[in-house]
Write a structure and sequence with these properties.
Number of strands: 2
Strand order of the largest sheet: 1-2
Number of helices: 11
Helix content: over 70%
Order of helices and strands: HHHHHHHHHHEEH
Largest sheet: 2 strands, antiparallel
Structural class: mainly alpha
Strand content: under 5%
Length: 300
């Protein structure tokens, strides 16, 4: 591989060396590399870019060396921050009830409950920002406001990525998209932002979060409430309360006896664990939705 003579060449070689790695890792590596290289160049403005790169390659590392370092660090970091995998069960009952020992189950549950709040916020932010941008487009401040709005959208995508990675266990970027537009004229930089697919997929994600948040919250709260109510029915009956109390056309029904109450409790326990499986599955699916919409499949 030829030695890079410009920062863009260095980044292209680093991207090629990281081919096949997680897109979130590639985005982080490219951002760190460009930030470091441009800082080195800014410290000595009269220095030739090729000479600076020749010096930096000896200290920071060649693109293939940096790629290997990032891959090794990623393995160590994931081993350190990931919770230990749950014990594998071979029986059907073991796999069914073992969901309670999986930390990702509770992370997904918290995410589903939080999604209603974040969904409302993201949707409101996206709709308000686009509406104000359209309304101000005829004024001098229209373009700066629109660019500021798009910058806030990218910032929120990083925040959402941290939430998704923490609660759902899906690797997300920890750095913003690398600033390859530095040094470009303003009009070209604006054009690059507008044609960047992740700008619009992030907005789509923010719009989707409102209906998804409502669905997630409703499913989680409804199923948990019903399953816990059924599972706790023996305790309700033990304190002298009727599990079911109906009066229809003069006929009163005061709930099942102890045998029926225990049967309801068993149904509630089964429903509770089935709910945990559903919650964990929804968390996995949403993690992939966030991955595809917030992280480009190939960082370009």
């Amino acid at each position: 591989m030829n030695a890079p003579r410009t920062i863009n060449e260095y980044l292209e070689q680093l991207r090629a060396a990281l081919r096949g790695a997680d897109p979130a890792l590639v985005q982080d590596a490219l951002y760190d590399a460009e930030e470091h290289l441009r800082a080195e160049l800014a410290e000595q403005p009269g220095r030739d870019e090729a000479v600076m790169l020749e010096h930096v390659v000896g200290s920071y590392g060649a693109p293939d060396e940096v790629a290997d370092i990032y891959r090794d660090q990623e393995i160590r970091i994931q081993r350190a921050i990931r919770p230990p995998p749950p014990q594998q069960h071979h029986s059907v009952l073991g796999r069914f009830f073992g969901v309670a020992a999986d930390p990702h189950t509770y992370g997904a549950l918290f995410y589903l409950l939080l999604a209603l709040v974040t969904g409302i916020f993201y949707f409101t932010w996206a709709v308000t920002g686009l509406s104000l941008s359209a309304g101000l487009s005829f004024l001098v401040i229209g373009i700066p406001f629109f660019l500021l709005f798009l910058g806030s959208v990218r910032g929120l995508s990083l925040l959402e990525g941290r939430i998704v990675e923490t609660m759902l266990g899906v690797r997300m970027p920890r750095r913003p998209p690398y600033p390859s537009q530095q040094g470009m004229p303003w009009l070209k930089r604006i054009g690059a932002i507008l044609i960047d697919g992740r700008t619009w997929t992030t907005l789509v994600y923010m719009w989707l979060m409102l209906p998804l948040g409502i669905i997630y919250f409703t499913v989680a709260v409804t199923l948990l409430s019903v399953s816990l109510a059924l599972a706790g029915s023996p305790f309700v009956k033990a304190f002298g309360f009727n599990v079911v109390n109906m009066d229809v056309d003069g006929f009163s029904y005061y709930g099942p006896g102890w045998a029926g109450t225990i049967a309801l409790s068993l149904v509630g326990v089964v429903l509770l664990f089935a709910t945990l499986h559903l919650v964990r599955g929804i968390g996995r699916v949403h993690g992939q939705i966030a991955k595809h919409l917030l992280v480009p499949s190939s960082v370009d």
